[in-house]
Automatic annotation (TrEMBL):
Lineage: Bacteria, Bacillati, Bacillota, Bacilli, Bacillales
UniProt-recorded name of the protein: Imidazole glycerol phosphate synthase subunit HisF
Gene this protein is translated from: hisF
Signal peptide limits: none
GO cellular component: cytoplasm
Alphabetized GO MF terms: imidazoleglycerol-phosphate synthase activity; lyase activity
């Protein structure tokens, strides 16, 4: 078993870290630079920074904040939100990001994945998939623009297409579970892992150390991401890792 990664996520709006429930009811969670320092010190394996208003409001990613956060980190750093072109990818990586996360822009123009992968390598290209279960379809549907707009893609089909186009990793968020703290969406994760051969990061639903154990042992996720339980000090990265080590899960 490869060592599992624990990844805090900074959802940033107007320069502040925020967190909501099922992508709404947003509340403040702190300063991104200060939180990044804390998570680095706690032993986080990576950090994800998502500018959650950039795509919806038609803005570009806050490069100055990205640069400030990157200056405090010694761990891999993924940045997403408002990245629409190869030039945007270049600018983001040149200002301290190790990877870019593409969501709406990739769904709108899948060629962007190939352009980024050809230029920087697939290891720099993460496809973020916001998934909500669609009763009519009987499966999960891809949403864009910060979870506001349903696309025409089934999640499993888009995951396959994204990897074919050059994505080296998938950040898979369950909108149904987001902020609920009831555990990760294991059936969703399993469905995507069955059709791709790249690492899948589980996102949405973490509420306890036990939930991380479940996602690593029941569906063998490569990494797990959480926000509110870390931001509001309900637990820490160090505590989660200590619990997983006790249970025999290999962590860094």
């Amino acid at each position: 078993m490869l060592s599992k990664r624990i990844i805090p996520c900074l959802d940033v709006k107007e320069g502040r870290v925020v967190k909501g429930i099922q992508f709404v009811d947003i509340r403040d969670a702190g300063d991104p630079v200060e939180l990044a320092k804390v998570y680095d010190e706690q032993g986080a394996d990576e950090l994800v920074f998502l500018d959650i208003s950039a795509t919806h409001e038609g803005k570009k990613t806050m490069i100055d904040v990205v640069r400030s956060v990157a200056s405090e980190l010694a761990i891999p750093f993924t940045v997403g939100g408002g990245i629409r072109s190869l030039e945007d990818i270049k600018e983001t990586l040149r200002n301290g990001a190790d990877k870019v996360s593409l969501n709406s822009s990739a769904v709108n123009r899948p060629e962007l994945l190939t352009e980024g992968a050809d230029y920087f390598g697939s290891q720099c290209i993460v496809v973020a998939i916001d998934a909500r279960y669609d009763e009519e379809w009987g499966t999960w549907r891809v949403y864009t623009r910060g979870g506001r707009t349903p696309s025409g893609w089934k999640v499993t089909e888009w995951a396959e297409e994204a990897v074919r186009r050059g994505a080296g990793e998938i950040l898979l968020t369950s909108m149904n579970k987001d902020g609920e703290k009831t555990g990760f969406d294991l059936p969703l994760l399993e469905a995507v892992q069955d059709v791709v051969n790249v690492p899948v990061i589980a996102s949405g639903g973490a509420g306890s150390s036990e939930h991380f154990y479940d996602v690593f042992t029941e569906v063998d996720a490569d990494a797990a991401l959480a926000a509110s339980i870390f931001h509001y000090k309900e637990t820490s990265v160090a505590n989660v890792k200590a619990y997983l080590k006790e249970k025999g899960v290999i962590v860094r």
